[in-house]
Amino acid sequence: MSFRHYLYVSDAKVDMLLSRIAPESALMGTAGTSPDPTAVEAGRHVHDGAADRFARLQRVLRHLGDRGDLGEVDGPAPYVHGVLPMQWGPVGDGDTVYFGGYSDRTIVGLGGSTGHVLSAARAETQPAHRPAGSLMPALLHQLAELAAEDTVGPDALGTVVRANSALRGPARRLEFVAQRILHGPCPYPELYPVEERTVLLGSPLYVALAE
Prior knowledge:
It is built from five helices and seven strands, in the order βαααββββααββ. It is α+β, with helices and mostly antiparallel strands. Helix 1 (11-21) packs across helix 3 (49-67) and helix 4 (136-147) packs across helix 5.
């Protein structure tokens, strides 16, 4: 998978998956440095800068590929890899960033915390009373705010379709790997009378500009 520039990396998801591959790696950098005991007690991980972050990410991606857990947008596995023209931006009150795009057969939406956008300034921890943007209730609530001026229906896949149609601005070609959250037939078949479309909602491990 090639890319020029990372836009988004979820260190939390990478660390969670890495701890399942090799538990000691969750407490040590890939270079083998010893963890800070204070950070360990606080449930935080020590990273040796950007190089360590990306090395950890690549190790997780190799593991997902080796296990057969990494699928494509039009035939998703538990995790999905794709390269698509996409639009993106903050959603609702700004806690969630949303990436929306289309393949030939699938309407794709990816939502996660703006705290994982690499260029964004963020607090080290989120307030306990506000769930992370990648959690389903918060994500769908904020997608609903983006997609409609008034009340929307309860159908989550329909919310993704409306959210994509509400995005504005130029599309860029992006590469991503995301955890599959929802996948199913488009609830508005009348919008695509020629061929059936499916809808995919995911929570990204990373998003990058693609060559």
